[in-house]
Amino acid sequence: MSDTLRSTRVAIIGGGIMGVAAQYQLAEAGWTDTILFEKAELTSGSTWHAAGQITHAVGSRVMGWINKTSIETYKKVEQETGQSIGWHEVGGFRIATTDDEVDWMKSIMGVGKLLDLPMELVGPEAVAKGNPFYKVDDVKAAIQTFEDGHIDPSSVTMALATATRARGAKIERHNQVLGASRKGDMWLLRGEKGDVLAEHVVIAAGSYANQVGQWFGLTIPSVSCLHHYLVTDTVPEFLDRPELPVMRDNAFGGYIRQEQKSGLIGIYEGHVCPTVWEMPQGAPWSAENELFEADYDSIGDFLMVALDKMPILADLGIKRVVRGAITHTPDGGMLVGPSGAPNVWLSCGSSIGLAWGGGAGKVLADWMVHGETEINTRSFDPRRYGNFADGVFILERTKDEFMRRHDTPCPGKQFHSLRPLNRHALYDRLAAKGAVFGEIAGWERPRYFGEVGEVEQIGWGHQNWHENAIREAKATREAASVIDLCAFAQFEIAGKDAGALLNRLSANKIPARDGRMSLNHLLTEQGRFETEITIWRIAEDRFFTGSPVARSNPDFDWIKSHIREGEDVQMVNRSHDWGMLGLSGPASRKIMAELTDVDLSNSNFPWLSGKEIPIAGANCYMLRVSFVGELGWELHAPLDQIGAIYDALFEAGEKYGLVDLGNYAFNGLRMEKAYRASGELTTDIGPFDVGLERFVVTENRDFVGRAALMERDPAWELLYAELHTDNIDIHGGEPVLLDGKPVGLTTSGGYGYSIGKSLGWLFVRKGTPRDGLKVQILNREIATTVHPDALFDPQNLHPRSET
Questions:
Q1: Do the beta carbons of residue 779 and residue 106 sit within 8 Å?
Q2: CB–CB of 447/674 below 8 Å?
Q3: SS3 787
C-alpha cells in the first residue's frame, strides 16, 4: 500500500444517472467529501441510451414524489449551471382501453391530488385533440398530464456533474474500482489509479452492481434485461407543428413520442424477457456504450399494434433501433438505501433511471446524512428481500416482472413465476380445502377459502370472494378460526445481557416477569419507526420475538447490530424453520382444552402471557394474544411439526365450528378492532404521530431514539374512520379531503366483514376537523365518519374473556 493512500467520506461506484444524482444530492446535503469512480465515461453504461421519459401519471404517492423530485432537481441544476438538460415539457397521455384500466386512471388522479400534480381524467376527444395522429376508437379514458415529458440523458447527467464538482466533490473518469476489502472501520477500494479508503460506499454500478456487490458479501437482486426502442424516419406531419405529448398505452406495452421530427416507439414484450450478463459471470468490464442486435421476432406483434395506434408512422422506415440493457428487480422497485453490509449503500436496480435518479438520490442522501427520509422507504429498501431470493428467484421473478410491466396493476395482482416458492407443511392441506394463496416474502398464505383450484378475481371494488371473507370473519367472531401465519419473523434472543439489549432498543418496557409479553416499537435515532415486535420473556435470560416476515432480515440485523462489545447475547433466526398458527374466537379455549391439561383460565394463563406446552407431540410456544380481537392463542413450533398441530386443532375443533381464516378476513377483523399495522408504522413517522403514546415509557429509562422522539412536536395525527360506501374499500395511499382540498392520506383499510362496514386509517394534519372529511377513491369523493375508538369491542373484553 502506498504512503499516499487517499481517503474519502463516500466513494460512489458508477457514473450513470443514479450515481451522479446521488453524489449531487449528497453535496446538497453538505457531504462534499465524496469521490465518484467511473471506469469509462459518465453515462456509458445504460444511461446514455435511455429514452428519458419522466411522467407524473404513476400509481403511488411514493413514486409520484420520486418523479416530481427528479424533475425539480434537474430544472434546478439547469438554472444553476446554465447547461441545457434537454428537457421537453410536452406532457403526456396514459391510455385506458379496458374497464380495469379506467379504474387505474381514476386511482392515479388521487396521486395527482396528493402531490399537486396538474393532471386531468379525459375522454377520447381530448386525446385526439392533444395528438390528432393517434387512433382513439378504443380509448375509454386517459390521464392527461401537463408538466412532465422527456429529457436528454447525457445532458442532464453532465449538468449534475458540473453542479456537483462546483460544490467540491470529485468525479474520476477512467478509474475503475477493481475490488474492496474491510480495513478497520473503513472500506479499502482498489482502483486502477491507486487505492482509496472510504467510510461509506455507494454501489450505483447499474448492470455491474451484481459483481461489485460480491466484493462486500452481497447478493444484489438485479438483472439486466434488454429493451427496444425504435426511431423512425422523419415524419412530414411533425415538421410544422408543436411537439406531441408522450403516449403510453398498455395495448402494445410501451410508449410513443416525438424524437425531434421523427417518431420514437418503445416496446416492452409481454411474452418474453431476454436477459444478458447473468451471474456468476456478470457484465464484462470491457463493455462500454453496449447495444444489442434488434429482435423483430420478439417485438413484431407489439410493434404492429403500436403502428396501428399511430398510422402516420406505419409506412416510414426505421432509421435507428436501440436495444440496450436496463436493470430490473424481482418486484420492479429500485434498490435504494442500506445494503446490510456496514456503511455500504445501494442506488441501483433502477429500470427507469432518468425518472427515478434525482428523487432516488435525494432519498439516499437524506438517509445517509440525516438518518431519515421525507417519505416511507420500505418499497425500495434493498433489505426487503429475504433468504428466498436466491439466484434462480432473482432471474425468473425479474423476467416475470418485465413481461408484466404493462399489466394493469389492480389490487390483488400477483406474480405467478416459481409459485409456490416455499411449500411448507400446511400448503397441500390448505390447497385441498380451497385456499386461494397470496405470496408474502416468498411464502404462501391463504387470502381466502373458496373452491379447490379457484382463481382469484382482482380489481378495485368488491370481488367474488367478498362473501367468502364474510363467512370466515363471522365464524371467527361466533366460534373459532385458525389462520396460517407460518410466514412470520421469529427470533430467539438469549444471554445474560439479552434483556438489557431489548430494553434499550424498545420505546416500551420489555416484560418484567417470566412468561409475560409486551408490544414494543424499535425506533431509529431520529425517533421514527424501525419496526414493531412482540417480546415474550421466557426467562430472565431468554426471550422470543415476533414481527412481520418481510422484516425478518432487517429486524434481525438491526437488533444484532446494537449488541455491544463484550455483551453476552446470542441470537437465532427461527423465521425459516419455525411456523405459527393463530387460533382465535370464543370457542378457542374449549378447543385448546382438548389438546392440553394445562389450566387455560385467566388466573393461570392471562392475556399477554405465554407458556411452553406440548401440543400433538410438538414442543409449542403458546402465546395468549390475538390480532383479530378475540380470545385466542398464537402457536409457535418447528415447521415440521406444524402439520400435526393443525390436524389436532381441527380434529378437536370440528364440533365447535372451527374454520380456516384467510388474510382478507383477517385484515377486516383487524380493522374492526382499530389495530395499527405496517401501513401505519412507516419509516417517516414515530409513535406520537399515530396515537401510540401508551406504548412509550420514558420514566427512568433511556432507549434508542428517545431524545429525538421527545423533541418532536407531531404535525400529523391518525384517525379511525368509517367509509360510507358499499362496494369499495380503502387500500392505502388515497387522498383525504376537506372541502375538496387534500389534508392527508389513507394508510390502510379494509372491509369489516363481521360488522358490515368499510373502515380505514386517515393520516391528516393535526387539528383537522373530524366532520366533513372525505376519501378520494377512483376519482370519487366518499364521505366518512371518524370514530373515537374501535367499532368492535372497544373495551377489549373479548381477548380477556374467561368463558
A1: yes
A2: no
A3: strand
Domain extent for 748: 676-691+704-787
Which of 316, 348, 370 is where one domain is finished? 370
Contact 307, 314 (CB under 8 A): yes
Of 392, 470, 525, nearest to 750 (Cα)? 470
Tell which residue, 750, 601, 753, 583, has the closest CA to residue 652.
Answer: 583
Sorting pLDDT into bands at 50, 70 and 90, what band is 2? very low
Using alpha carbons, list the distances in angstroms from residue 261 to 1, 134, 237, 242, 629: 55, 16, 9, 10, 64
Residues 723-745: tens digit of each pLDDT: 999 899 999 999 999 999 999 99
User: Angle formed by the axes of helices 353-370 and 17-28, to 10°?
Assistant: 40
**pLDDT, tens digit (0-9, with 9 covering 90-100), for 172-206:** 999 999 999 999 999 999 999 999 999 999 999 99
Closest CA to 760 of 677, 648, 642: 677
Is the pLDDT assigned to residue 1 strictly greater than 90?
A: no
Asked whether residue 288 is assigned to any structural domain, the reply reads yes
The 10s digit of each residue's pLDDT in 332-346 is 999 999 999 999 999
The radius of gyration of the chain's CA atoms, rounded to the nearest angstrom, is 27
CA 383, CA 418: separation in Å to the nearest integer? 21
Total number of domains constituting the chain? 2
Asked if residue 181 belongs to a domain, the reply is yes
CB 744 within 8 Å of CB 716: yes
Share of the chain above pLDDT 90, in %: 95
Query: Does the pTM exceed 0.90?
Result: yes
**178: CATH:** 3.50.50.60
